[in-house]
Amino acid sequence: MRLELAGQGTLVTALVAGLIGTATLREAMEETGLTFSTEVMNDPAGLARLALDGVEAGETEILDGLSAEAKATLAGPPRAFDLAAVAAR
Question: Its domain of life (predicted)?
Answer without folding.
Answer: Bacteria
